[in-house]
Amino acid sequence: MKADDSAAGRLLGGDSFSMHEAIGGWRGFIESSAPGIAFVAAYVIVGGFRVPVIAAVAVMAVLVVARVIQRTPPTQALSGAIGVAIGAIWAWRSGDASGYFVPGLWLNAAYLAGILLSMAVGWPVVGIVMGLLRGEGTRWRANPAERRRFQLASAVLAAMFALRLAVQVPLLLADQTAVLGTVKLAMGVPLFALTLWGVWLLARDAGPAPATQDPPPTTR
Asked: Using 50, 70 and 90 to split pLDDT, how confident is the model at 40?
């Protein structure tokens, strides 16, 4: 997930959902998408793996430097830079442009496995996150309705990673690098933001049962 975890936490814990904030704002969206666009464009125009990798890394470097010069928080740009760097190294060592996307697919598989495991043991990851955000801790586990909501919300999150793998892995195996790059962009930040909205819709209605209060004393 190329998303600011703290921003995602603020969105899930808020009373309203902002799609603009979910994509990291227009600048965050551009920073997340530009290296991939540069990679695909260079691959289509030039081919090979060296020029596309160099193009993606160069664009990412410009974005990070721009953040530093403007003295704005470079957190999102740096997190994206790490992903680009790992993909670039993988592609360069394998000598294959499609290798640029392999680390991201492994990361999606790891997220999917982690979420499914959390659901299987009765500790859905969305419930853990929401418990921390609300200051509820683990009390939500004592409420069956709340647990079901968090299980369903976690399932929605897992479905996003599963869908990415189901669509992108066959493209990787078929060596459809340009198509894979385009699909990865579409299934990146936009799909994550839409999924986060779905998780928020489910999680916002999952709350602890209201505490019962003693009735006021009756006057005679």
From this structure: very high
